[in-house]
Amino acid sequence: MTLSTSAELSIPASCYCGAVKYIVHSLPTSPPKLCHCTNCRKAMASGVQWAGYMPASSIEILSKETVKGFARCQSFFPGVVAFERCFCSQCGSRVWNVLVKEEDGRQVRYLGVFPGLFDDPDDAKIEGFRPKSHLFCGEEVALTQWRGFDEMQLLEGFSSAKTAKTDK
Length: 168
Prior knowledge:
Radius of gyration: 17 Å
GO molecular function: carbon-sulfur lyase activity; metal ion binding
CATH class: Mainly Beta
Domain CENP-V/GFA: 11-147
Strand content: 25-35%
InterPro entries: CENP-V/GFA, Mss4-like_sf
Distance between the termini: 23 Å
Pfam family, one: GFA
CATH architecture: Beta Complex
Keywords: Lyase, Metal-binding, Zinc
CATH topology: Metal Binding Protein, Guanine Nucleotide Exchange Factor, Chain A
């Protein structure tokens, strides 16, 4: 069964401190991507940004008063007229991106959510957020270009070994 409507999908998400909470009620409108551009890497303080975008109406925001939107920046994508990164005012976690696109002569607002904020990352409902492509691979950090990740030890916590998945 494909989960795609608010009646079928409800994925709770929150920031690090829990002050920002929201529920995702749809799958992304286009396949999620891993972005390696310098802009996204620096904004996420990570080697990659993983996000899925959907119409803003698909997100039920439960605690809007703790969200700060700033860091407006230029978008590199055709048809995008505005792009903004939003954060929790308490802990500073990135909570979503706001992207405004020009579609059929009108502006449509999308939110880009980060699956890393989903409260239950093992929930089968998040399969639709599996990344399908990489963007800006020419700007990829050397660390993500290393090969041999499959041979690395996987740890459940700081010390207990986890069995590696072999389903490639």
